[in-house]
Amino acid sequence: MTSTDSISTATKHGRQGEATVRSKGGRPRSFDRDAALDQAMHLFWRHGYETTSINDLTTAMGITPPSLYTAFGDKRRLFLEAVRRYAGEPEAAEAAIAAAPSAREAARSLLTGAVVMFTGANTPPGCLLASATASGSASSRDVQIAVAAYRHRIADAFAARIGQDVAAGVLPAETDGPALARLVVAVIQGLSVMARDGLPKDALASVADAALHAWPSETPA
Amino acid sequence: MTSTDSISTATKHGRQGEATVRSKGGRPRSFDRDAALDQAMHLFWRHGYETTSINDLTTAMGITPPSLYTAFGDKRRLFLEAVRRYAGEPEAAEAAIAAAPSAREAARSLLTGAVVMFTGANTPPGCLLASATASGSASSRDVQIAVAAYRHRIADAFAARIGQDVAAGVLPAETDGPALARLVVAVIQGLSVMARDGLPKDALASVADAALHAWPSETPA
DNA sequence: TGGCTTCCGTATCGAACGCTACGAAAGTCT
DNA sequence: AGACTTTCGTAGCGTTCGATACGGAAGCCA
Fold first, then answer.
1. Which one, A13, B20, B98, B204, has the greatest CB density within 10 A?
2. Are A155 and A206 members of one domain?
3. How many domains are contained in chain B?
4. How large is the ipTM?
5. Are residues B71 and B99 in the same domain?
6. Å between A36 CA and D16 C1'?
7. pLDDT means per 10 residues in chain A (221 residues)?
């Protein structure tokens, strides 16, 4: 959501299914777990959760089904791990919003960051969080809820940041913080749809710019 | 998108697969084609295109697979017909936008209409056009494109309506019409996501209201 | 009434789904 | 070196996918 570098590297090799398990010898893994997770993330990003098959995944990851299952558990846990890799720790996003110089600046940063991330040349269009579980069967409701929780945390952190600016007199007292926060999140979802529809980056940027005009005027402290 | 009555009735019985075909006798259909299409629409609306199975459909429609295929062709054509039933003829939506008293009024009407439609008590949450094909495998790209075309027509009609108001001096000359039009469509996509996340109607309404603040001030003619 | 046409219900079709049993291979540890 | 642990590749598990073949049933028209 915020960073563009969440695509490349992360921790580095070694087991880490639930929390870096100690191994007592045995044949070492012959593929790069991080690289494989990267491929899985890209597939879920482009084609969604339920509509990406294990066969699609193993082919792109360059491994066989048993390797996938021993390394990642099952499809659901692989997806949730890909989500974490895509969006980073939710606490980091919350901290970034809280640390922004102003709520409006956080909004601008979030929106322009989304425009860049959704139209990357080497990544699928749109947002994984917005599209991968936008619809699905009843059996994947728990996964849909897990992704929705990510959105909620962003919106809540954002509403809190707006509340700070209202309390500080930077934003008008009558500002509807939750509504403004949800508007930003809503526009981001829309930007994802438009990126998937093939609109170019500058078109998305102009939409993000227009959305910022919904912001009330600030009174610098 | 605009009307809320697109849920109940439509033409009425009789064959209409591609264009009301004449029949030369034979056993008449024993189920209500419109009612069955309604059920299919609701299932696609709630669970999406690829993630709704033929078995789900036949069960909800109260018919057997052969009946479904005889009456609707295949899954793809059934879905496209359900989309038409959901959103109505695109020409009607375009005409409604063109006939609005002002572009801003059209935006207000579109947004409030979306809030109502996405939070109906007897319908699935969110928007079929926004969620049913938000992601999918490569084999359903044509369906995704067909739905995207619907969004494009709305946005284009809207941009044209804004252009009218700019030409008439109702909106400032520097107004970015396409961006403003796309912003409305983007917010609608976001409202759909939020409705699916379970947010209540008043929360969505406040977001729609906040979005309207992005609109430049009018100069009534 | 008889012929024709269409639909309905049963019982699948081959393919793809998520997932795993099993034995050989390749490492670490004593 | 030898026991042990873990991964690897092959092959296939049972289920569900979208879509049909087929024969009997039910209507229209002559």
1. B204
2. yes
3. 2
4. 0.91
5. no
6. 28
7. 34 37 78 98 98 98 98 98 98 97 97 98 98 98 98 98 97 97 98 98 98 89 62
